[in-house]
Amino acid sequence: MLLSLNWLKEYVNIPKSLSAEELAEKMTLHTVEVEGIEKEGEKFKGIVVGEILEVKKHGNATHLQIAEVNIGKTKLTIVCGAPNIAPGQLVPVATVGTIMPGGMEIKEAEIRGEKSFGMLCAEDELGLGTDHSGIMILEKAKIGQSLAEYLKLDDIILEVDNKSLSNRPDLFSHYGIAREISAFLDVKLNELKLKKIKADHGDKHAKLEKLDVKIEDKNLCPRYMAVKINGVKIADSPAWLQKKLISVGAKPINNIVDITNYVMLSIGQPLHAFNADVADKIIVRPAKNEELIDCLDNKERKLNNSNLVIANGEKAMAIAGMIGGKFSSVTAETENIIIEAATFNAYSVRKSSGALTLRTDASVRFEKALDVNLAEDGLMLAIELILEICPEAKIASEITDIKQDAPEIKEITFDLNWLEKLSGNKIEKKKATEILSKLGFIINADPESDNILNIIIPSWRATKDIKIKEDLAEEIMRIIGYDDFPIQVPFIKMAPAETNRDRMIERKIKDILSKENALSEVYNYSFVGEDDLKKINMDFSTYIKLANPISKQHTLMRQNLSLGLINNIKTNQYKYDDLALFEVGTIFLNVPGEFKKHNSSEETLPHQEKMVSIALAGNNDQLFSQGKSIVTNFLMSLTDLSVDVAFLPTDLIIGYADATEKAVINVNGKNIGTIAKIDANIGKSFGLKKDAVIIEMDFKDLLLLSFLENNKKYNDIPKFPPMVRDLAFVIDQKILYNDIRNEIKNFHELIKSVDLFDVYVGKNLGEDKKNLAFHIIYQSNDRTLTTEEIDEIQKNLIENLEKRFEAQIRNF
């Protein structure tokens, strides 16, 4: 977007001491990025006033002429095709090397055998209009004078980055930018004084027309204003208006079109002028599918019902918010016009613009969500200018104004103490109030607090920009200047995140089982079914029933993990010879007092516990022993200690368990779970083709065991050597290994460890007998033990074992 510095100065008192470069820097720091600065006359560099001395016909082309032109210091021969040149005329001459406003470079050329050393310029070639019928003829010009000097182009043009204005539709105009300048320079903004135009055509007895306007969807067109003006004489705009438009790159066309463009560039409201003789009705409606419109850019476009159009009774006259149609346009013959000022839905305009690949100055503004109140200002300013430039024109209709209900005025409570904490600077109430007032906010102080302001958002900022107190803080801080705020690292008291010990131990458990023991982790539903529970002899009377089960096979909340693992074995048994699986999951218990009925207003979740379960399957006679080894290794790794792990016989009812191969897992004297082989008949009823063992352990007990890690104490390495004795004896098979081991370990304080290294069962031992062989380590912390001392303890130990377990020392 281009901005004229002279135009800005009409609205705001910019100090003369402030250069254009300094102003641009301040605009970039406070409001919007300025991408470039250009002196207006620079685009006409190399173009001078020349006097045509002689015109003669071109010898090799009937439509070309050769002109001898005096440009002051020299005379040039120029080949020209314009029919209107004649000796004595003063014309603009582009000399060799000139870059034209359109980007073309003027070079020395040979045209049909005649050399040409420049170009005589038409209006459109200079960007001063649309006329290409002939060369532009100048009046009262000095030969050799630069064209910029002749046109009095003394303006400075600022190029602003449109991308940084996406949320600021109010800045797409000179007045909007001037408001910002007044705030950050702290200078006066000249109020935009618009006359309240009365509909009056000069004849007190004649009745004003009433325009036939219909809006089919007010959401797509929140406001539509229009007025008819008769007796308009279409002509060139006055020089001041043309000069303003040219300065910011807009080509003058005619007085009416130029006025609509001036209003848009001045205050930001796009307008459109219709030939009133064509616009017998005005209907704002969605386009019909495949409806055609011949646009002002000489392109015919095919529309659909996602495009909004302005139509008369028969056809579309304009694409709303974007471009007009040719058949309803204002031409030299037009005498009566209708001026439209409207607000169109931003999303609708943006969508149509993208679909039609058409972006215009109007669409760029509408798609940013214009203030609905701006339409009235735009129409009033346009009427004022038309009546001024066309004195014979008369208002012929009432002013039509169709709009939605006015949006609620938004007010934000703003705390200056909060602003101080946010910015790091104390900003005085007076300063904050002055800044916001210059930007158009209405400030109401809170009578109960000196630091509270109640701020009413102006309509041009409320559409999509200012919503919360942080937006207001930004307004104050950017106008003051972010460079004026101290740079300091914020002091934040930080604490490490709380350690979730349960989660850490769960991850460790999974790592040990999957990495060290090569088990595969599985995840199963938390739901089970009655039929499957019956198959494994589980009592499900206390299971929690689901109010809305996902299937007939999943009607209850599980109370153990075993059923899911058994199903995993069944599903995968044909793919693998051996299976080793584990799951860490939650079970749900119907604990009285902890679970309310489903329809209770005090509903809580059921009591939940976490379990660790292992499933082994294969055609292996040692599967039960393998399971005990995995458990022992797992528990040793979990604690990093030599814990006492025992597998004790149990009368505990485990529905799926084999009668003989089942045990509780005992660690340091506490039962933490069970290990059981699945009964062969139950396995068959379930469809298992392999032997299977299920291990279940309570996660809470494992968590307590893992805590032993943190209570390790350093013990000095013993200074005195151990003595190792092996002891093998025969006992009844009914006697448990743990009973023998505990008896040996607790027999004497010098016995430090007892390890079983051999088990033997055979005919030589006798029926129902087994042989156990132990390594027994004797050691003292304060002396070296003697053989005699150990022999005495060993003798007493053997006598004790014979007495308690009828053990016989094996000597064969």
Descriptive overview:
The protein has 812 residues and is an alpha+beta fold. The chain folds into six domains: 2-41 and 156-185, Phenylalanyl-tRNA Synthetase, Chain B, domain 1 (2-Layer Sandwich); 46-145, OB fold (Dihydrolipoamide Acetyltransferase, E2P), CATH 2.40.50; 213-403, Phenylalanyl-tRNA Synthetase, Chain B, domain 3; 411-458 and 467-484, Phenylalanyl-tRNA Synthetase, Chain B, domain 1 (2-Layer Sandwich), CATH 3.30.56; 501-711, Bira Bifunctional Protein, Domain 2 (BirA Bifunctional Protein, domain 2), CATH 3.30.930.10; 723-809, Alpha-Beta Plaits. It has a seven-stranded mixed sheet with strand order 26-29-30-34-33-32-31, sandwiched between helices. Helix 5 (174-185) runs antiparallel to helix 12 and helix 6 (239-247) packs across helix 7. The model has no long low-confidence stretch (mean pLDDT 89).
How would you summarize this macromolecular structure in one to three sentences?
The chain is α+β, with helices and mostly antiparallel strands. The chain folds into 6 domains: 2-41 and 156-185, 2-Layer Sandwich (Phenylalanyl-tRNA Synthetase, Chain B, domain 1), CATH 3.30.56; 46-145, Beta Barrel (OB fold (Dihydrolipoamide Acetyltransferase, E2P)); 213-403, Phenylalanyl-trna Synthetase, Chain B, domain 3 (Phenylalanyl-tRNA Synthetase, Chain B, domain 3), CATH 3.50.40; 411-458 and 467-484, Phenylalanyl-tRNA Synthetase, Chain B, domain 1; 501-711, BirA Bifunctional Protein, domain 2, CATH 3.30.930.10; 723-809, Alpha-Beta Plaits, CATH 3.30.70. It is built from 22 helices and 38 strands.
